[in-house]
Amino acid sequence: MPRAVADRLDLPWPEEGQTALAVEKAGALGVKGAQQPVPIASLTKVMTAYVILKEHPLKGGENGPVVKVDEQAAAEAHSLSESTAPVRQGQLLSQRKLLELMLLPSGNNVARLLARWDSGSQKKFTAKMNAAAARLGMVHTTYTGASGFESTTRSTAADQLRLAREAMKEPALRATVALRSTKLPGQAEPVRNTNKLLERPGVIGLKTGSSTPAGGNLMWAAEIPDGTSHHVVYGVVLSQRVGTSPTEGNQAALESSERLLDALQERLPAALAAYGDGRDGRR
């Protein structure tokens, strides 16, 4: 996509952190901020889910194999220092349900459980994550755990945008990140998605991530109507309000993403039409 299209949009880029945007089948809309590796918190779980689904594909509506919740995952469910999912020792949950519990409430304990289930240890699974990142050309990314709790897991907005576009090709992942909530057996209240951007029309995912060292981070995908069709837009916003509380950072990332999405919904179809058909980047 020529720079002229991005310039025509006059987007409200966040003043802090780093941001990357792209349109499916058309190309990059731009990257703002120094693309230096920074902590990404729970955006890490998108790669965890991607690797799990490459190793254990789910076709159609399949739920996949049943996994027993181990003692470690159950104990970690009571942690007060990180986001978790309320699983119990000995509980039998399908692979699909565990993906939901990892991605929606951002369960760190479930991310590590899936890593152990797949590879026997989080260390061995993390090696698979880094290998996948290398294959995808994410040259500024290093994973040191499956959950994102470690601030040593670092990446850039451009690298995470590359992952977002690839991850959404996985039907099971795409279906999961679009869910507002999921049911957990034995629990009356639904487990809700932390991604409040899903409340906006057209948003189809993806993942939140926030911590004091990482600030607020949000990876998202949205369908923007254009006549009888639509454009799928991907965005990654990193390092909003670093050093504040996870709640404040998460809110800042949400607000930055909402401003970008508002502008794209208003201006993208016309900008692409002025360039060409907007489908493949050619006149």
Automatic annotation (TrEMBL):
Keywords: Carboxypeptidase, Cell shape, Cell wall biogenesis/degradation, Hydrolase, Peptidoglycan synthesis, Protease, Signal. One of its GO terms (molecular function) is serine-type D-Ala-D-Ala carboxypeptidase activity. Belongs to the peptidase S11 family. The lineage of its organism: Bacteria, Bacillati, Actinomycetota, Actinomycetes, Kitasatosporales. It holds the Pfam family Peptidase_S11. Substrate binds at residue 207. This is D-alanyl-D-alanine carboxypeptidase. Residues 29-228 form the Peptidase S11 D-alanyl-D-alanine carboxypeptidase A N-terminal domain. The active site is at residues 42, 45, 106. One of its GO terms (biological process) is regulation of cell shape. It comes from the Bacteria. InterPro entries: Beta-lactam/transpept-like (IPR012338), Peptidase_S11 (IPR018044), Peptidase_S11_N (IPR001967).
